Amino acid sequence: MTSSKEKMPQEQSRMSLMPMFILHRLQEEPSSGYSLISYINSITQGSWKPGSGSIYPTLQRLERLGLIKKTGRGPRSKRIYSITEMGKRELNRLKAEFDRYSTERWHRIRGMMLFVVNPRSLAKMLNETIEMQREAWERVLSSNELSDREKNFFLEEHRLLVEDHLEWIKSKMKTYKGE
User: Fold this and answer.
1) Is residue 95 part of a domain?
2) Arithmetic mean of pLDDT, 22-38
3) Can you tell me the mean pLDDT for 134-143?
4) Is position 43 within any domain?
5) Calpha distance 155→157 (Å, rounded)
6) Is residue 1 part of a domain?
């Protein structure tokens, strides 16, 4: 049973992506562990299908911490979990911390990729990143957290970057076409 007095330990203030994502998904809708596994597999297009050995212990830990609770049984008697109010507060805190952490370090980590990934794979990764941008922009633009003015500002900033990037691409293509 969950102890209401049990709190997130200070040393665990930086929660990994898996528990944070589970909290996020449970805020959207109550789910079973199996549903979470299937959803993660789906959104990663089969690139990552976490096993029951990672999902269920994480659910148990989140429940023990009072961040989620069992709210019933679904098809085939699967336990359904929901996020608690404490879980929502913790998720908001974790998202803010993750935003700071990921933007601080993302460029540095990406820089390592330039040295360890072969050029053919790197080119493929770069093109896949560009393909993903439209979906990411749709998420940004559908957000209620940003005003229309902010959305327009970010779009204009992106447009300028894309135009600059396109000019760079054209100049490189001329170089390799032998013009």
Assistant:
1) no
2) 94
3) 92
4) yes
5) 5
6) no
